[in-house]
Design a protein that fits this description.
By secondary structure, the protein is of the alpha+beta class. It contains 19 helices and 21 strands. 43% of the residues are buried. Bound molecules: adenosine-5'-triphosphate. Adenosine-5'-triphosphate binds next to β1 and β2.
C-alpha cells in the first residue's frame, strides 16, 4: 500500500477539527487498506509502532533527524536549523526542504506503508554505540524516496510530533463504520479495546473476521486492561443519592495505581496510563509471589510509600524516588512501600470483570495473604449519610486523601468513568470540591527570592475533542524553595523554541514547554475569563474559564500523561456544580 495514501489522509485531517470530517477521512482510508496491514496503519496514524504498554519507542533526537534531512536533501544542517527555529514545526521544515530538493532532482520510487513501518521498527530496535549513525542512514534513505508531503509526516512521526487530535474514540468510530457499516457497533469495538488496550489488534480482528470476532476478546495475561475510573462527588448526601441503598466505602490511599499481572514466576506491572513500570518496583516483583495464592492472576492495587518505623502512609511525592533511572535499589531501601489491593480482574485464566463488586472483593480476600508488605484495602458497608461521613473521617485520620464509594453489584467497567465508583475527598467541604490535574505549558521568570528560577507557571487543561491545551490559570503559590528548584530542573528539558501549536492562551509566557508535565492544583473558584481559553464560548461568547486563587498542592502527577489531565468536560461540570451550590445557599 502506498504511503502517500496515509500522508494524504493526514494532510486532509490537519485542515479540520470537526470530528465528523476527521472520522470520514479515516473511514475512506480504512476502506482501501488491505486487512493484513491495518494494524500498522493504525499505529502510524497515532505516531506509534506498537501499543504504548509494549514500550517500543521510535525515539530519534531532533539533531539526528536534522542531519538525516540534510543528507538526503543536500541542504546544510545550519540552514535546516534556522528554518526550524523560524517555524517550530519539524514536519513543515522537512516538507519545505524536500520541496527544494525535488525541484532539482528526479522523483524516486514510491514508498510503501510496509517500508516506512518496517524501517521505523528497525530503528526502534537499534541499540548501542553505533546505533545513531545507523538510525540516520535509515531515515535519510526513507526521506530520499519520499515526496515532500510524505517526508513531512515521516519527520513528524520520528520526532514524536505527530499529533493530529486522532483520539482513540475517533479511530473506533471510523473502524465501526468502515468494517461493520455503522457507528452503532462501536460499543463492541470499544469492549475489545478496553480489555486488550491494543487498537491495532482490534482493527485487524474486525477487518479480517468481522464484528463477531470481537466477542472472542478476552482478558489476557500481560495485556493491560484499561482502568475503571471514578466520578467525583462533593458530599456524603450526593454520594448516597447516586449510590442507592447499600454500598461500600474503601480507603482512598494517595499513591500510585498499579495493575499487577502474575503468571507463576513472571510479574509485570502497569501504571494507570498502562505503561510498563515493572523496573521501578523490584520489591513488588520479589515479594508478590508469596502473598498471592493463584498462579495466574491480574490484580489492581494502590502502592503507597510508608514510614518503616511508624507504619504511617507517606505523601504521594515520596514515590518520585522510584522514578530514578539508576539507584532504584537504593530507593527501594530508603523509601519502602506497601501494596494495597483493591480489585481482581482475572484469576486462573477467567475474567472477573463481569462479576459484581462483592464477589470480586470476596475473591480478593480469599486469595491474598496479607502481611506487612501486602494489604487488602480497608472497606466498610455503608447506608446512611452519617455512615459515609464517619468512614471519611476514619480514612482521613488514617492518612488517606478520602474514600472511594463502590456499588455492591457493579461489574468492573474497564475504560469507563462511571457512577458505580465515586470518589469523595477531604477537600469537598470547601472551595472547588476537588483538586484538578493540569499541564505545565509555560513559565514566567521570578523576581526577588525567585530570581533565576520560575516565579509562576502557566497551566492548561486538556481538550480531548481537539487535542489542544487551552490555558486555565497562572499559578505562583504553593511552591517551596525545593519545589521551585525541582521545577526548574525538570522543565529545562521541556523548553521549546516556539509555543507548541496545541497550546492556546491569551497570555505570553517567558518560556514555553512541551505540554508534558502534569501537576495537581486546588483553587477557590472557577470564573469566566477573556484571557484563558478553557471551554471558550461554551458558557458565554468570548469567555473561557479560569481558576481563582490556584495553588500547587505539592504533587507532580508523574504517573499521568498530559492526555490524562483534567479535561474540559470535567472543568465545565465543576463550574456548573459550583453554580448550583451558590444558588442553593441563597
Ligand atoms: P482518575 O480518576 O482519572 O484516575 P485521578 O488519579 O486524579 O484521576 P483520583 O482522584 O486520584 O483520580 O482517584 C482515582 C484514583 O484513586 C485511582 O486511579 C487510584 O489510583 C486511587 N485509589 C486509591 N484508593 C483506591 C481504591 N480503594 N479504589 C480505587 N482506586 C483507588
Amino acid at each position: 500500500m502506498k504511503f502517500s495514501l496515509i500522508a494524504d489522509t493526514l494532510g486532509y485531517m490537519e485542515n479540520t477539527t470537526k470530528r465528523l470530517e476527521l472520522t470520514q477521512h479515516l473511514v475512506d482510508l480504512f476502506k482501501i487498506t488491505p486487512s493484513d496491514i491495518i494494524s500498522k496503519v493504525i499505529y502510524l496514524l497515532q505516531g506509534k509502532l506498537r501499543p504504548d504498554h509494549e514500550g517500543v519507542e521510535i525515539g530519534i533526537a531532533e539533531k539526528i533527524a536534522i542531519k538525516a534531512l540534510s543528507k538526503s536533501s543536500g541542504i546544510s544542517v545550519k540552514k535546516i536549523e534556522d528554518e526550524y527555529r523560524d517555524t517550530g514545526d519539524f514536519g513543515q521544515v522537512a516538507s519545505k526542504i524536500l520541496e527544494q530538493k525535488t525541484q532539482t532532482t528526479f522523483l524516486s520510487q514510491n514508498i510503501t506503508v510496509e517500508r516506512v513501518y518496517d524501517t521505523l521498527y528497525k530503528i526502534a530496535e537499534l541499540k548501542g554505540a553505533r546505533s545513531q549513525d545507523m538510525k540516520m542512514k535509515y531515515i535519510s534513505s526513507l526521506l530520499n524516496d519520499a515526496t515532500p508531503i510524505e517526508g513531512g509526516f515521516i519527520a513528524k512521526i520520528i520526532t514524536s510530533n505527530l499529533r493530529l487530535g486522532i483520539a482513540d474514540y475517533t479511530i473506533l468510530d471510523a473502524l465501526a463504520v468502515a468494517y461493520t457499516g455503522s457507528k452503532e457497533n462501536r460499543p463492541a469495538l470499544e469492549h475489545a479495546y478496553n480489555v486488550c488496550s491494543d487498537l491495532g489488534k482490534v482493527a485487524k480482528s474486525v477487518a479480517e473476521n468481522g464484528l463477531e470476532s470481537l466477542k472472542d476478546f478476552q482478558v489476557t495475561i500481560f495485556s493491560p486492561i484499561r482502568p475503571m475510573l471514578a466520578e467525583r462527588v462533593k458530599s456524603p448526601q450526593e454520594a448516597r443519592e447516586k449510590m442507592g441503598t447499600e454500598f461500600v466505602s474503601e480507603y482512598k490511599l494517595d499513591g500510585e495505581r498499579v495493575q499487577i499481572h502474575r503468571q507463576e514466576e513472571k510479574i509485570v506491572l502497569y501504571s494507570r496510563s498502562l505503561e510498563n513500570i515493572t523496573n521501578y518496583y523490584p520489591d513488588i516483583v520479589e515479594n508478590i509471589g508469596k502473598v498471592l495464592k493463584p498462579d495466574e492472576v491480574i490484580l489492581e492495587a494502590e502502592v503507597v510509600a510508608m514510614n518503616d518505623d511508624t507504619g504511617e502512609f507517606l505523601p504521594f511525592q515520596e514515590l518520585m524516588h522510584r522514578r530514578r533511572k539508576y539507584k532504584i535499589a537504593q530507593a527501594v531501601q530508603e523509601y519502602p512501600i506497601t501494596v494495597n489491593f483493591f480489585d481482581v480482574l482475572s484469576m486462573d485464566k477467567k475474567s472477573c470483570l463481569d462479576l459484581p463488586y462483592v464477589q470480586r472483593r470476596k475473591l480478593l480476600e480469599k486469595n491474598v495473604i496479607e502481611d506487612s508488605f501486602a494489604k487488602i484495602m480497608p472497606m466498610v458497608f455503608v447506608k446512611t449519610d452519617s455512615e459515609v461521613e464517619d468512614s471519611l473521617e476514619n480514612a482521613i485520620n488514617a492518612g488517606c486523601e478520602g474514600i472511594m464509594l463502590k456499588q455492591l453489584n457493579s461489574p468492573y467497567r474497564a475504560g469507563a468513568r462511571a457512577s458505580n465508583w465515586l470518589k469523595l475527598k477531604r477537600e469537598y467541604r470547601n472551595e472547588l470540591g476537588d483538586s484538578i490535574d493540569l499541564v505545565i505549558v509555560g513559565a514566567f521568570y521570578g523576581r526577588g527570592r525567585r530570581t533565576g528560577r520560575y516565579g509562576a507557571l502557566l497551566l492548561s487543561a486538556y481538550d480531548d475533542k481537539s487535542d489542544t491545551f487551552p490555558s486555565i490559570c497562572k499559578v505562583g503559590t504553593g511552591f517551596t524553595d525545593d519545589s521551585l528548584d525541582q521545577f526548574y530542573q525538570i522543565l529545562s528539558d521541556k523548553i521549546t523554541i516556539r509555543k507548541d501549536p496545541r497550546i492556546e492562551s491569551g497570555l505570553e509566557a517567558d518560556v514555553w514547554f512541551e505540554p508534558e508535565v502534569v501537576i495537581e492544583i486546588v483553587a477557590s473558584e472557577i470564573t469566566l475569563s477573556p484571557i484563558h481559553k478553557v471551554a471558550m464560548d461554551k458558557i458565554r461568547k468570548g469567555s473561557g474559564l479560569a481558576l481563582r486563587f490556584p495553588k500547587f498542592t505539592g504533587k507532580i502527577r508523574f504517573e499521568k500523561t498530559s492526555e490524562n489531565a483534567t479535561n474540559i468536560d470535567e472543568i465545565v461540570t465543576l463550574y456548573n456544580s459550583q453554580k448550583r451550590v451558590v444558588q442553593d445557599e441563597k
